Amino acid sequence: MARDELPAPASTTPLRDYLDRPARGATENYLVVPRSLAQSMPLRWQQVFTGLLADLHDAYAHLSWPEYAVVPSRWEALVDLDEEQLAAAGFLADLGPDGELVFRDAADNPVSDPGHHRVLAPVDDPLPPASAGRIEPRPASPL
Fold this sequence. Notes:
This protein is of the alpha+beta class and 143 residues long. Helices cover 24% and strands 13% of the residues.
């Protein structure tokens, strides 16, 4: 960088920038932090995170927060789902006149290529519950 060039300004939206790229637990509208993992982080990290959460809750205490039901889910092909997963994703499978499975969406429209049609379906949670105790974190890979 030449002497007369100014350094690029730091982002004014670092959280959005980070979460707009693929990030575990992040969707377009929400960030989910597994409690068992957060409670297993080092003490200093927990102290800082607790302070940040307190700031967030204080800043938006005037809003009517709903209760949230977090459902662990993965993108799966329709043909790989069981009956419960299909129902939760808004689909059903029935035998067609030729004896083959016909997959239908919530509006009763047939799905033309169910082997390639992927939906967000509930799965068993692969992460331990908060009651499991401390989960030893692995240090990040060096840069």
